[in-house]
Amino acid sequence: MNAQVAELDTAAEIPPVTRIVAEWVANLKYEDIPEETLGHAKRALLDSLGCGIFGSRQEWCRLATMVAAENSPGGPCTIWGTDKKVGPIDAAMVNGTAIHGFEIDDLHVESMLHPGAVILPGVIALAQARNLSGKDILRGLVAGYEVGIRTAICSSIEHKLKGFHMTATNGTIGAAAAAAATLGLDVEQTNDAIGISVSFASGLYSARKGAMTKRLHAGLASRSGVLAGLLAEKGFTGAKDGLEVDFGGDFSTMGDDSDLSIMTDDLGDRWHINDNGFKAYASCGSTHTTVDCVKKLMEDGLSAENLENLTVNISKAGFTNVGWEYFPGGVVGMQMNGRFVAATALLKGEVFVDQFDEERMEDPETLELIKKIDFVHDPDIDALGLAKRHTVVVKARTTDGKEMEATREQRTGSAQFPLTNDDLESKFRRTAGVVISEEAAGRVVELSNTVETVESAEELCNLLAG
């Protein structure tokens, strides 16, 4: 054995984090989950369903659907927005891609994770395949959100700055926990499912500038979680210490100086899904506080016509997400670029799905306005911590010399400035209504709000078919 590896493998004792998490997931009962947390889970359910139904009409999802239907036709699980049915693994892949398919899916700010896109598709697919109840769905959702979010926070900012996409990597582990909970795996099987998922965790952030792969990251994470759960159910084993082991473990390999206590402290008492946020704008979450500030400055008189220059001070995490120089590279690049998004807010007054048409990718008016907009990394914002990584200071100067400034710590739709239940229902009807009937959309709202009373997932899944 290599001497360095031997030394690492015999290092000081490390807490059995994977095992502790597996025990919590396997022993979690629906009755253990607080009412407030169940309420948040139902909000997340409705929002993600709307995002997925809308996403099903995008080109990247159409292509993913073709691959799934050609390779696992005739399964028990619905591909949302279509009449196709496939196996649960492929359904999770396509529907996860769909939820993450237009930058409108939910976001937990401190973890930098889009949990709904990786957790919900596998839970729904397994619930449909196994004829499970609404309580099973909620239990799987809550378990997956908790493990996924904790894993992402524990991975630390260094994980992201190495070039990994949090939703793709940490989301895989959350998806495996969700699958284990939904399937009702025992402790050993759950431990194996998480251990298997650690080896599946992948996804690089180069895709953010225009590749369809950015959308697929969530689908692959959800797919891998379901696969890990099904393998473990049959007796396939995974690394029992896959999260924490100091050589070749998830945190030791892809993070840096991870605080393992984040995984286990207050587990079962603190519920991170309660801090989950929802998107009011169809762009990367790191642009949303900028949009909020631009809207405030527009109320004070700023416009695309009178703008001389605009500067956005932003965290390093935010800058790596959206601070890059814009170049036309597809809808993904439009939504992931802060300059394009800020210019869109100034020109259109709204930043939602209709504003990100490919025809605007090289819009001369937008490209000209972008020349007046700059994003700057501000270390003082980094010092506020990851929970405030969306903080921005936006400074503008008008053509008549007026200086303007706006600051925002958290975005519209965050836990601090939440969307109401009416807001989420309106968003759902607007997004899902592109694909399914008004009557069907209304019934999905009813089922989501009362999902704990549902005996079988079949009606809900049939409504999602479009």
Please describe what this structure looks like.
The chain is of the alpha+beta class. It folds into two domains: 3-279 and 435-464, Orthogonal Bundle (2-methylcitrate dehydratase PrpD); 285-408, 60s Ribosomal Protein L30, Chain: A, CATH 3.30.1330. Helix content is 53%, strand content 7%. The chain contains 21 helices and six strands. The protein has helices at 3-9, 17-27, 35-55, 59-71, 88-99, 115-130, 134-161, 166-183, 187-200, 213-233, 250-254, 261-264, 288-299, 316-322, 331-335, 338-348, 364-370, 379-382, 421-432, 438-449, 458-464, and strands spanning 73-78, 85-86, 307-314, 373-377, 392-398, 403-408. It has a four-stranded mixed β-sheet with strand order 4-3-5-6. Strand 1 (73-78) and strand 2 form a beta hairpin. Helix 3 (35-55) crosses helix 5 and helix 8 runs parallel beside helix 10. The longest helix has 28 residues, at 134-161. The chain is globular, with a radius of gyration of 22 Å. It starts with a helix and ends with a helix. The model is unreliable at 1-11 (pLDDT under 50).
Oligomer: single chain
Number of strands: 6
User: How would you spell out the order of helices and strands?
Assistant: HHHHEEHHHHHHHHHEHHHHEHEEHHH
State the separation between the terminal residues, measured CA to CA: 57 Å
Mean pLDDT: 95
Structural class: alpha+beta
Spatial strand arrangement across the major sheet: 4-3-5-6
Would you identify the CATH H-level superfamily of the largest domain? 2-methylcitrate dehydratase PrpD
CATH fold field value of the largest domain: 2-methylcitrate dehydratase PrpD
- Major sheet, described briefly? 4 strands, mixed
Number of helices: 21
Segments where pLDDT lies below 50 for 5+ residues?
1-11
